[in-house]
Amino acid sequence: MTYTGQVRPGGPAATRSLDRLAITKVSVGPMDNDAYLLRCRATGAQVLIDAAADPDVLLDLVDDHPLDTVVTTHRHADHWQALAAVVAATGARSVAGVRDAAALPVPTEGVAEGTSVPVGDCVLEVIELVGHTPGAIALLYRDPTGHPHLFTGDSLFPGGPGKTTDPADFTDLMDDLEAKVFGRLPDDTWVYPGHGDDTTLGAERPHLAEWRQRGW
User: Fold this and answer.
1) How is the beta sheet containing 148-153 ordered, strand by strand?
2) How would you list the strands of the sheet with 33-40, edge to edge?
3) What are the phi and psi torsion angles at 61 (to 5°)?
4) Per residue in 152-196, pLDDT tens?
5) Residue 107: burial class (beta carbons within 10 Å; 0-12, 13-18, 19+)
6) What are the angstrom distances between the C-alpha of 65 and each of 43, 46, 61, 212?
7) Which of 4, 119, 129, 137 is most exposed, with minimal Cβ within 10 Å?
């Protein structure tokens, strides 16, 4: 089945198979949270992005392969309700942005801009996107045989940036998105958000000025 990025609560997961990395997306919990299981095709090593809810569903995806790391994109509780259960069942380390890590319910390693998270032979680059929360991060996989893949949590969705609580936070988030994401990555970069359907930077780029003007 062709991967479209469309998954629904209670529905099946969707898997995208790249040359070196398999990406499985599933919707969990009452807020239609997207969780992503990344598996290195050479080693079988796995990383889970956002253990949001429904630990049994997530552990079924993990299956009998090792789960090395759970990355939480930001501190909001709907993105880590299953974190403690998944870590307890798998022994995986917990990772989050340096300014959000202390808010999580398990001991969590803080990672900063420019560091990376390994997935076996593959690498996820950490990008700090301040605004939705102080320590929100995105994770970038540069596919050596294809286009980039960017996991944005709640910092970027189809149609705009994630929710912010005041104009300064909105400005910070837009500044980071324009400088670190749209300013560095090509239009064919595939975006995997924290809720709902996927998008691409090319689909969103024409609307940057509109987002600035509307203020959300």
Assistant:
1) 116-119, 122-128, 137-142, 148-153, 190-193, 199-200
2) 14-17, 21-28, 33-40, 46-49, 67-72, 93-97, 109-111
3) -65, -40
4) 999 999 999 999 999 999 999 999 999 999 999 999 999 999 999
5) exposed
6) 10, 7, 9, 44
7) 4
Q: Report whether 21 contacts 141 (CB < 8 A).
A: yes
Count, residues in the chain: 216
Of residues 8, 15, 55, the one with CA closest to residue 33: 8
Residue identified by tokens 């959000």 is 100
Q: Tokens for 14?
A: 């969707």
Find the angle CA(116)-CA(206)-CA(26) to the nearest 5 degrees. 50
Q: Which of 147, 152, 181, 166 is nearest to 215 (CA)?
A: 166
Q: Which two tokens stand for residue 45?
A: 């090593």
- Write the DSSP string, 129-172: --SSSTT-EEEEEE-TTS-EEEEEETSEETTEEPP-SSHHHHHH
Decide the pairing of beta strands 122-128 and 190-193: unpaired
Give percent of the chain with pLDDT exceeding 70.
100
Measured CA to CA, the distance from residue 160 to residue 151 in angstroms comes to 15
pTM of the model: 0.98
Q: Residue 4 burial by CB count (10 A; 0-12/13-18/19+): exposed, middle or buried?
A: exposed
Q: How far is CA 169 from CA 74, 151, 160, 175, in A?
A: 15, 20, 14, 10
